[in-house]
Amino acid sequence: MEKLYISGGNPLRGTVTISGAKNSAVALIPASILAESPVIIDNLPHINDVEIYIKILKELGAAVKLEGSSLYIDPRGIQSKPLPNGKVQKLRASYYLMGAMLGRFGEAMIGLPGGCNLGPRPIDQHIKGFEALGATVESMDGSLSLKATELRGDKIYLDVVSVGATINIMLAAARSEGLTIIENAAKEPEIIDVATLLTSMGATIKGAGTDVIRITGKSKLLGCRHSIIPDRIEAGTYMIAAAATRGDVTIEQVIPRHLEGITAKLEEMGIRVLEGDESIRVAPQKQTPFRSVNVRTGPYPGFATDLQQPMTSLLSISEGTSVVTDSIYAARFRHVDELARMGARINVEGSSAFIEGNAAGLRGAQVTASDLRAGAALVVAALSAQGVTEIGGVEHIDRGYDMLEEKLLALGANVWRKDERVGIHGA
Ligand SMILES: CC(=O)N[C@H]1[C@@H](OP(=O)(O)OP(=O)(O)OC[C@H]2O[C@@H](n3ccc(=O)[nH]c3=O)[C@H](O)[C@@H]2O)O[C@H](CO)[C@@H](O)[C@@H]1O
Ligand SMILES: C=C(OP(=O)(O)O)C(=O)O
């Protein structure tokens, strides 16, 4: 069992380069299934979710080669096979196999997805979309079976703004006959990224990034080359970590517009953030305590729920009371009890955390990450704390942070990983 150790208190200083976005990568890889010639995806992050997806594609019969950060996928050998359990349960984004396999073969049998345990995460809107396109969807023994003799475009109004449903419907619609219109679509940058790939493959997609997306499908899509957008959640995590350690960090290879939600909140706390064209700097701070703020998560361009947990750590070391409300995942507060072990004072009521900030800071402790961003929250807290923090549940963090220790070490953090069975890496 691996653990991450952080001896806190070092201000992070220097530059860090952000990797390609996890939530794009895990949609672009299955999107390649729809093509009838090779797809090359550049700027691929080296994270566990991507590794699992590569294995799934190989299992389906694709020829896949990873060279550095470029992934070559030849989807021609892919066969329609059931994937009831196993790897699909290890990540959330395995649900994209439903849209992609349905689009390519007119059938799919996929186990229900895994991913972070954030409370209920239904996929009824995905199913509603597939049914509107002409598929019959049946639930059996923890899997969904989808079948369509013909996929035909339709108008689909999403009852809930959903990233996954928007992308999944786009995938199936890209190989459907005629026009599909998604209303009340999600507007996250990763949706534009997937639309760009599908357009390069030959589909016609208008309106991605707005709440109405129009997709005109093609019976045959071809391969292409595509570079993944920067990971705004990884970037936001480093911004928060820089502030929490009162460091001076330039975060490179980002799209600052994608970071407006977090930038605005940091500035409201009195933290200096300087925007470049493709970089963002969290500059040295005055020694006065950070101000408390209230945060409410929302669909993009609102404050990202995936940054709510690390933000809670920063607010724990600010002055005054902050209220953090997660309107996307009401139960996304499993990090709170762990932060309490480090001295944070947080009460959760309903979908809100009431944080009594303590500018004197946190102290190292033994903690466990229950999910990916809970892990990020604990890393931020540990970097700022006095003493050593031992973080378990590292496998969750590895789902989404590319070269975390290497990047933190280069910024001056004192971090190492220990596998109880083998010894120490990266000290
Ligand atoms: C792989 C991936 O991209 N994961 C992201 C994606 O997850 P994911 O795509 O699973 O999240 P959604 O955008 O679908 O979920 C948003 C909200 O809609 C609800 N909902 C969703 C679908 C549905 O059919 N029915 C329904 O009720 C969910 O329970 C949630 O409350 O967006 C989330 C919200 O930005 C992020 O936290 C995740 O990092
Ligand atoms: C919730 C997340 O991921 P997933 O949807 O893949 O579980 C996340 O990236 O914070």
TrEMBL record:
GO terms for molecular function: UDP-N-acetylglucosamine 1-carboxyvinyltransferase activity. Pathway: Cell wall biogenesis; peptidoglycan biosynthesis. SUPFAM superfamilies: EPT/RTPC-like. Coiled coil: none annotated. It is an enzyme of class 2 (transferase). Pfam families: EPSP_synthase. InterPro entries: Enolpyruvate_Tfrase_dom, Enolpyruvate_Tfrase_sf, MurA_subfamily, RNA3'P_cycl/enolpyr_Trfase_a/b, UDP_GlcNAc_COvinyl_MurA. One of its GO terms (cellular component) is cytoplasm. Cell wall formation. Adds enolpyruvyl to UDP-N-acetylglucosamine. Belongs to the EPSP synthase family. MurA subfamily. NCBIfam families: murA (TIGR01072), PRK09369.1 (NF006873), PRK12830.1 (NF009470). This is UDP-N-acetylglucosamine 1-carboxyvinyltransferase.
